[in-house]
Design a protein that fits this description.
The chain has three helices and ten strands. It is an alpha+beta fold. A hairpin with a 2-residue loop joins strand 5 and strand 6. Helix 1 crosses helix 2. It is globular and about 40 Å long.
Length: 249
């Protein structure tokens, strides 16, 4: 299992397989047994102590597939990340409404955390599809339970798709505890709009299809892009997951 993240021109950390998720402040010593690709190192990041178009080509290059191998040890890597990253979300599954869409309070907390970590234009990270929905066939059941959201990449002021912001938005969502990927136009069938799809790691109400996007053959923690056949899967174009201490194996 290969887990590497490259974001905005800087090499990120290769990661270990943990079930639910993403990043933190600085790691100084790590001794995990991890699944990594040959020649890669793996890091488990500690929990933060900080307080709480016409051309839909994303600004990244997909990496070639590799066969994962089991590594007996991992080399620690110091990786500074933003204050507030990798905070554990609350265990609150009260259903709330945001922009007319239903999500849990836990999921909404994570979206708001991603907004704080995102450094791009204001008013982005808007939810366009929530959880607990079975009426959207193109989502292959991933939104049928909790923890699933689709995020708009439109500028709310100009209504233009901000393709250049997708990488930063995905990174912020991953720092907040989501498995997240950019989906170009038509990626889920003719007419599907460009957007970001995100699954909350560790959510107790995930549908089986959403859970597969974390740990299945197409899963985030397997270094894949979350797309089931026949649309995928493919290697994660962002490298791999960010793993936080609160994510339990």
């Amino acid at each position: 299992m290969r887990i590497i993240e490259q974001v905005r021109g800087r090499s990120l950390v290769p990661l270990a397989l943990l079930l639910p998720c993403l990043a933190c402040n600085i790691v100084t010593r790590v001794e995990p047994t991890a699944i990594v690709s040959p020649g890669r190192t793996a890091v488990v990041l500690p929990a933060s102590t900080s307080p709480p178009q016409d051309n839909p080509t994303p600004a990244f290059t997909a990496m070639p597939a590799e066969t994962p191998t089991l590594a007996a040890s991992a080399t620690p890597v110091a990786t500074p990340l933003p204050a507030g990253a990798c905070l554990e979300p609350p265990d609150d599954y009260t259903r709330v409404t945001v922009r007319g869409e239903t999500v849990s309070a836990r999921t909404l907390w994570m979206v708001e955390r991603a907004k704080e970590l995102y450094t791009g234009p204001a008013d982005m990270m808007r939810v366009t599809q929530g959880s607990y929905r079975t009426d959207v066939g193109a989502s292959f059941g991933t939104h049928a339970g909790g923890g699933a959201v689709d995020i708009s990449i439109r500028d709310p002021k100009t209504n233009e798709f901000l393709y250049g912001e997708t990488e930063a938005m995905v990174h912020a969502l991953r720092l907040a505890g989501f498995a997240a990927w950019y989906r170009p136009a038509d990626a889920l069938g003719k007419g599907s709009p460009p957007h970001i799809h995100a699954i909350a790691v560790g959510d107790k109400e995930l549908s089986p299809d959403a859970q597969a996007q974390l740990t299945g053959d197409e899963g985030y923690f397997r270094g894949m892009d979350g797309l089931p056949p026949p649309n995928g899967p493919h290697p994660d174009p962002y490298g791999g997951p960010i793993v936080c201490k609160w994510m339990k194996p």
